[in-house]
Fold each of these.
Amino acid sequence: MPELTSGRRLDQPRGQARLRLNIDPDTFGRLTERLARFLGTGKYLFWQTLIVVVWIVLNLVGISFHWDPYPFILLNLAFSTQAAYAAPLILLAQNRQDDRDRVALDEDRKRSAQTKADTEYLARELASLRLAVGEVATRDYLRSELERLREDLAIEPKPRRTKQA
């Protein structure tokens, strides 16, 4: 079997290409989001409408400016190219927003679970405090018990003294 003259073997993968375009996905994503946000504004629609009207007027009325005659094939091509790039850019921006929403939803779930656990803990603590307070003798309870004891012993209550001025 004859060997390759370049010294390269077919059963081994090629080395990395020397010319590499290094694109930061986060920077590209931010750019696509800004562009997608701009495409949805009234300012963009105004300028696009103005350009289309000027394009059509110059091609219909202009004497020497007939670069795109009546069916406006070039204008249609420009719209098609714009749509071909706008749709993926909008989808990229939506995917990034979905990722952010997913992270926010996970954080909300964790916060909600922690809040629920905290609430359950506080409810248990409150119940234990109610039980503990229920076992404490209150002033009214002591008075009623002393009154009952006095009645049991049949001691006449002394009249209370009132302060005289």
Note: The chain has a mean pLDDT of 83.
Amino acid sequence: MQSARHPDRTRCVPVSGPRRCARVAAWLSVLLAASAGAAGATPLDYFLHTAGPAAAPTMRLGWALTALVVAVVIIVTVLLAIAIVKPRPTGFALDAVLPERGGMRWVYIGTTLSSVALMAALIYSLVVLETVAAPERRPELTIVVTAYDWWWKVEYPDDGPTSAPVVVTANEIHIPVGEPVRIALRSADVVHAFWVPQLAGKTQTIPGQTNEQWIEADRVGVYRGQCTQFCGVQHAHMAFEVVAQRPEAFAAWRAAQAQPAAATPDADAAAGKRLFAARCAGCHSVRGTPADGMQAPDLTHLGTRRLLAAGTLTNTPGHQLDWIQHAQEIKPDSLMPSIPLSVTDAAVLSAYLATLR
């Protein structure tokens, strides 16, 4: 059987039924993209290994607190088992037995040890916070990241003396390797949290204020990030990627991203451009064209990104059309509507999107 969406695909469910296979495929694509993110890394690598100086102290703190919690659980479990197994004397009365047998002494010892352990954990946490508060060198690059339900707007503003042009992209942050980068965090709607486990701890984005964080990558790679503050039904599908590049590669990427959209080379792409202006330009922008929407991701260089819809799909022509036509099935309650397209409209729109590189 074939799919009504794409004639070359096997159909997962009847056309008239719910398209659950699209959702399952979307979730699987997220996991596969994460697994292939950084030189063959597995998803656990994003939480068990660090790749930058801002993340290493936080990771050590996490392991220390984990060890403390495990030790407490083991001790309490052992004591509870002893209390259950050990026979009690006839006529046992807690008030009478504890003083006579020195039982309160163990209560005092346990309370003291717990207080010391918690105080040590507090001091260690404060030391780590101070360690990662600021990088050793002043960041030369500032990136403004604004969280939306449920995607990330990424802006590279004009950074003064270098007169670098403004770059706007979405869900993909490029940084130069070996250089600290200041991240200015904002929210356009509700509270979100910005977290790249391998590069830094998490920082909340709060409406009406700008929070700051810094990240730095020790090596070239792709590092997955995620919103870690529950922000609605698609919170789990609000991911992004940090792409760490050699300085010269980063400079070339930024220069290319600053360019306006390329001219449409053929009639199909030109027709797709007109369709985009009529159906998509109210929300999306494409620099160098009349499309100047501000409520959705900038698509000027859509083709250079690895993922779509904040990490929900891989960026392929098929997934682009799938997302446009079935957004509410793939990512329910997102602000992207499902837009029905005829076969001809889908073909010309795909031809135009292919020029956005």
Note: The two ends are 35 Å apart (CA to CA).
Amino acid sequence: MKIVFIINPVAGNGRALKKWHRFVKTVNFPFEQVTTRFSGHAAEIAAGYRERQESALLIGFGGDGTLREIVAGATGAKELIVGSVAAGSGNDFTRAYGTFKDARAIEKFLLNPVYRREDLAQLIDGAGFQFVSSSGIGFDAEITIAVNRSASKKKLNQLGIGKLVYVLYVVRTFLKFEKFTLSVEVDGKWITYSDVWLATVSNQPYFGGGMRISPASITDDGLLELTVVHQISRLKLLLVFGTVFSGAHTRFKEVSQMSSTEFRLSTDKPVCRHIDGDDAGMSLPNEMVVYSVSQYDWKSIY
């Protein structure tokens, strides 16, 4: 089996490349390495191996966006297995799917390659967006997108205080965020939520760098979970967010959760969206967006 490292040099605010330079010195087996040059490049690289029907272990050396692209490119391939080395900012992919802590772990895997078939989720609004972990609408998406677009992020990262940008945007968004109305069609029934802060469709438990937003999510059960936070004061929202890392937020009446193979969502105003922490544009007023899942579409290490 061919070993291919797909490295995103800008992941983790540039820390991924530094980590790779240290990591590669410990590798004692043959491998190929490819460095991504633009958004979407990791998907193209993985798709190339799929189209050539090569047998390979594709190891993403980056963050959640990098791994999402690799999975999208490898989807449907019989001979490709996807693994990862955590080198991003949030690294939620590595919390739910197979990951390698070091080169020695890869060597052990090669002695007995074991994989499992995983689900792949998609967001369809005329165009299509695939994701492996989660897609969010509202408060969390607005923060994520603002941070990614911030001109000061890179400068503060160079000073070693890049997380300060995230904190600043959390505070700013918390104070000015305008709640919205969300309509959900699930299993033939319509539900309307008012004063919504966020809605997250999950294929695994984690989002936002380790928050267990959807504790019941399983990566290979053919289901997605929808979490809606609504009709809650700003003060109580702080309390709820303080419990998300443990998953205890699900006990609050303002947190609604449900499971299905498909959700149809629409909002009453433009609202920010993300997929696996990357910008997925805006929901348009009263536009129906479909979230669905395909079972057993790709292989992860186990």
Note: The domain at 2-113 is CATH 3.40.50.10330 (Rossmann fold).
Amino acid sequence: MSEPEDTEDRALRERLGALRDDSPSPGFQSALHRRLVEAGPPAPAPGWDWVRWQFRHRAPIVWPSVGVAAGVAAFLVLGAMTKPPAPPTVAEAPQPLTVPGTQVPVSKVAVIKLNFTADVAVAQADFQVSLPEGLSFWADGEELPLRSFQWTQALSAGSNVIPIAVRGQRPGRYLVTAEARAGGQRIEHDVVLEVTDG
């Protein structure tokens, strides 16, 4: 070691030795303790400090409450997201003819496109289309005498569009009813067709 470092080291030791240890008076500790007990615990600061304080001091109440709230929220969210598809409903009465429909003049043939949607492929489905008086099926440029037409065909998964050609005999609003049966389920479509003068 060099001599200047020794003198600095010695000076530091002398200064540290000159420091006094002023211990508090005997009554100070008990007075401080009494004042802290009277003041009570400090209030948590707003924000995350308050949340941490709640979790730390009220854990037997807060944790179960948070768990129940999270469970209820998960149940509601999953219930809203995974609603089962409604079973096909059976129409008990024809829809009123105030539903807007397709317009076609008396002199024209209307092609009604029925769209049956299936979640999975169906090997065999029975179909029936019924026409009211005033409408007739049309095929190969001729009017067919049938009021109702039935057939069986397979359905693919997804959308299945079935075109039906009809022609109005006189002006008016008519309700065309189409029905599909597959695997014990019955699906019914009603289409309003308005035949106009022309």
Note: The helical segments are 3-18, 26-39, 48-57, 59-81.
